[in-house]
């Protein structure tokens, strides 16, 4: 039986892949009104309900749905085993729950995870293992990423303004057209990274490893490049006006 779902104070009964849950329309729709899960229960769509119990069936793995509900209720992500982060984030991606601001992923193992378009403002990834993950078009403004392993990560067009990437492993990362204004990149490993067209105005790159780094067309105005070895760095078309190059090797 399919029907629209009017707003009601009565509990909503859910069957998620065989696991039963009870919640409210407000929980499902208010925290992230633009998500798919909110759209499902907004009243604008039809949902499949059991004709006898009124239970709504969703064909997804129900193992982590309690964490999805607790996120919608309280904005809290639980401490999980490394492999379970991947499973939970896969479910969050399916339900289009993209507001992960302030979430703490410190020390988590979240390799090859898709965070594209996610709002990760002020999220914490300190010392996380996130090799091969995708943060394309994500909001990482003021994020804590110090010491994180981000080797091979895609950050094209991401907003990393004032993000802390000190001592992070950024080898072979792609930052094409990313916004890194005032970012902290001291001692970051940027070997073979692609920052073509990136905006690094006012960024601090003191001691960063830039061997083979592509900075073509990048904005490095007022950037701090003191004591950086630029001999193997591609700087064609880069803007360096006002940059601090004291002690830099060129």
UniProtKB/TrEMBL annotation:
<protein>
    <submittedName>
        <fullName>FH protein interacting protein FIP2 isoform X3</fullName>
    </submittedName>
</protein>
<feature type="domain" description="BTB">
    <location>
        <begin position="10"/>
        <end position="112"/>
    </location>
</feature>
<comment type="pathway">
    <text>Protein modification; protein ubiquitination.</text>
</comment>
<dbReference type="InterPro" id="IPR000210">
    <property type="entry name" value="BTB/POZ_dom"/>
</dbReference>
<dbReference type="InterPro" id="IPR051082">
    <property type="entry name" value="Pentapeptide-BTB/POZ_domain"/>
</dbReference>
<dbReference type="Pfam" id="PF00805">
    <property type="entry name" value="Pentapeptide"/>
</dbReference>
<dbReference type="GO" id="GO:0051260">
    <property type="term" value="P:protein homooligomerization"/>
</dbReference>
<dbReference type="InterPro" id="IPR011333">
    <property type="entry name" value="SKP1/BTB/POZ_sf"/>
</dbReference>
<dbReference type="InterPro" id="IPR003131">
    <property type="entry name" value="T1-type_BTB"/>
</dbReference>
<dbReference type="Pfam" id="PF02214">
    <property type="entry name" value="BTB_2"/>
</dbReference>
<dbReference type="InterPro" id="IPR001646">
    <property type="entry name" value="5peptide_repeat"/>
</dbReference>
